Every structure is written in structure tokens, then in C-alpha cells.
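Thread title: Can someone regenerate the structure for this chain?

I was given the following input by a collaborator and told the matching C-alpha cells would be attached. They weren't. Posting the sequence so someone can regenerate them.
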Amino acid sequence: MSKTDFIEEFRQHLVADGKSPKTVASYTGDVQAFLAWLESKGTVFDGRLTRFQVTTYLKHLSGASLLANTVNKKVNSLRCFNLFLNEAGATPDVVVHPGKDRVKVALGSERQVEVFSDEEVERILFHVQDRKRCSSRDALVVTLLIYTGVRVSELVSVRLQDVDLSALTLRVVGKGGKHREVPLRAEVVEAAREYLGTDRRESRHRDSQFLLLTQRAGRMDKNTVNRLLKKHGKILGITMKPHKFRHTFCTRLVRRGVPLSTVAMLAGHASVQTTARFYVNTSREDKQRAVELL
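Best answer:
Regenerated them for you:
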């Protein structure tokens, strides 16, 4: 088989395994880059993956000034490719070992996450109260992002039945179809009731099962969320992106002493280790304050 044949069969394997389109594209892209690198070394890939190929490629990556997370993602992709080749009978051995091959990152030395300052959060909250500058729909979007930490994909998937304003809870469908329940603050409930009683009730798509609507569709999409955040961010002079709200949500909880296990459940993280890696002493401001205590 040719390199292209291996990539295509690997892609089909990932799809059949239920991987998301984004994950499929990421894994196949990483493997394509690896096979292209092998070709640049004069090696035609015949389906047999060797430990020498893997370790030499990782040395190549280590000299490319890539972030640790980027290298580790490629290791995960190669591991998945290795297991695929095992099943196909092309490679008899497991030659990619995440425990050995991933770049070790010291706690507190991870990639910085970008968060809003407390002053910025306050400015944003005051802004969304002004109906001359912010519609009730946009206000609900921003309030949900601030106080629930949902991913943008989760936000646009919220259905009316997922919001219980009496019990003050939001049912979120996260990655892998996993469900979690997030308590709602009074500010979110107030914003939801206003939107449901005004902009949404007057929409021609009001019979939609989804909570957030647009003028053209019965469901808001991720691009619309990004555009409205960019618009309001421009007014405030603040860079506003969905994941920045999520990082802020988790960081504020950790700073206030909420147990990592609770933060992980609220954020829908697969493990507490994910929460710790990103939100324990991850902001430059936190580290600067810590050093100044010496």
C-alpha cells in the first residue's frame, strides 16, 4: 500500500471508532507529517512502524521549538496509528509509549492560559446590563459563559428543556456525549427569564427546541457567538473569546479555594489532572504575586 492508502484506512478507522471530525483531522494530519518526514529521510513507509523511527522523529520535534503540548499531541496521534497498524497486522509491536515519549512538564510551568481580570469581568457584566448596547440574547450568552464555564459547542447545543429555572440548574452535554449539571446563579436566571420573555418570544424561530436563536435560524452557531463577543469586546476594548471565559471561570474557582475535583466536575474535565495542569498557578499574574511574597 502507498502512504496515501495507509492514511485513508487510518482515517476510516478513526471515523468507525466514533472520533469527532476535528479529532480525525488532527490525528491524520499528525501522521501525514510523520510519514512525510520519513520520506524526507529516504524511507518509504511499508506499514511497519519501528521504535527507531519514533525516537528519531521525536528528537527532530524536540529541536523544532514546539510547545510541549504540541509534541505530546503528536505522540498521542502516533500511538493511535501504532495501535491501528497492530490491528491491521502491519506492525506486530507497540513502539510508541506515551509514558516514555511524552514531554514531561513541571507543574506550574505549563502553557499560560489567558483570563479576564476581576476588573474586566465587572466591566463586562455592567456592559451587558445596558440594553442600548447589548440585547437580552447577547447578555444571556455572556452571562452563561461567565458563570457556567461552558464550551462554545456546549453553549449553542443547550435546549430549552436543559434549563430548569426553578431548580436553578443547567444540563450540559459535553465531550463524548457526557452529561453534567451546573448550578445557575441568580444573575443567569434573571438574564434567561428576560431573554425568554422578550427577544426569544418575539423571534419567528421561537418554536425551536434550542435556547439561543438568531434572526436567520432556530439555533445559534459557534461563528455567531464569536462574532457577537468580538463586537462587544471592541466596544469595551477587551479581547473576548469563548475559551477565555472558560479559563476565567475555572481560574476564579481555584483562586477561591474550590476543590479541584469540584472544578473538574463543573468544567466537564475528564480528570482532575486536566484541571490541575491548566489552572494551578497558571496565570502570569498569579506567579508574579507568588514571587513577590519572597
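The mean pLDDT is 89.
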